[in-house]
């Protein structure tokens, strides 16, 4: 696959099976993402920086086909060896390709870009330019997910962006794996992790979540998922504009508008 000069730097490339399952499940159910996929005339999805192995790209393709069966997924990596490995391991998987590319997206115009555990390894000052470079390449109505997670995918956070601006922040976890919601602070995206200090909205959000989690302790007898839902209800009652959880939610998910973090 030919394209523009690759923009970016080599990152560690760690990966693992099912590591990004929580963000994948969120993408499948998020109304804005579903609408973008369903309305796209050319449903191309880019998985940017998939790492040493192509497993998360293949998983993304399989999961998103529940929304749009005819989509095409392209995994992009900045190192030729990773591209060759991905092609060898993936074989002739239908409608999944692998190529050399960075934030310029190899000249593609995708409706969705997933860039997980990529910008976390950059300096915070590089984030705005990286976002802008990807945003310029999006198809009309396209979206970007810039996120990070731990090695097992139990603690995650991501920002959803459109062609102009960030739209929302999502924190997601296995509720069985946390003592309090602020455990997710170490997985905040690069644009936010240095702002988790007193006086900043993200710090206030995490403190409010911890207080609501403590208040909802009585619901813990029914399990941490029930307790997480009770925490969301308490936050909403206190004026935090959290997205309502979907039914039969497996994960602990807290999504707020980006504008809430700018107040």
From TrEMBL:
Gene3D superfamilies to which the protein is assigned, alphabetical: Vaccinia Virus protein VP39
Keywords for this protein: Methyltransferase, Transferase
GO biological-process terms attached to the record: methylation
Taxonomy, superkingdom: Bacteria
Molecular functions (GO terms): methyltransferase activity
Protein name: Class I SAM-dependent methyltransferase
């Amino acid at each position: 696959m030919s394209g523009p000069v690759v923009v970016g730097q080599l990152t560690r490339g760690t990966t693992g099976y099912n590591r990004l399952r929580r963000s994948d499940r969120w993408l499948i159910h998020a109304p804005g993402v579903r609408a973008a996929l369903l309305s796209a005339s050319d449903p191309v999805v880019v998985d940017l920086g998939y790492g040493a192995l192509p497993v998360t790209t293949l998983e993304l393709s399989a999961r998103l086909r529940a929304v749009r069966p005819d989509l095409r997924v392209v995994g992009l990596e900045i190192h030729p060896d990773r591209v060759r490995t991905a092609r060898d391991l993936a074989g002739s998987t239908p409608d999944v390709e692998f190529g050399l590319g960075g934030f310029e997206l190899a000249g593609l115009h995708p409706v969705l870009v997933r860039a997980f555990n990529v910008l976390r390894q950059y300096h915070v000052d590089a984030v705005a330019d990286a976002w802008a470079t990807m945003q310029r390449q999006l198809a009309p109505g396209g979206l970007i997910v810039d996120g990070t997670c731990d090695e097992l995918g139990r603690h995650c956070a991501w920002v959803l962006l459109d062609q102009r601006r960030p739209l929302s922040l999502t924190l997601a976890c296995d509720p069985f794996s946390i003592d309090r919601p602020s455990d997710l602070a170490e997985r905040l995206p690069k644009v936010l992790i240095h702002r988790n200090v007193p006086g900043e909205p993200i710090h206030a959000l995490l403190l409010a979540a911890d207080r609501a989690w403590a208040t909802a302790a009585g619901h813990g007898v029914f399990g941490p998922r029930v307790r997480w839902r009770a925490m969301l209800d308490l936050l909403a009652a206190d004026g935090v504009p959290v997205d309502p959880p979907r039914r039969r939610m497996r994960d602990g998910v807290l999504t707020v508008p980006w504008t809430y973090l700018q107040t």
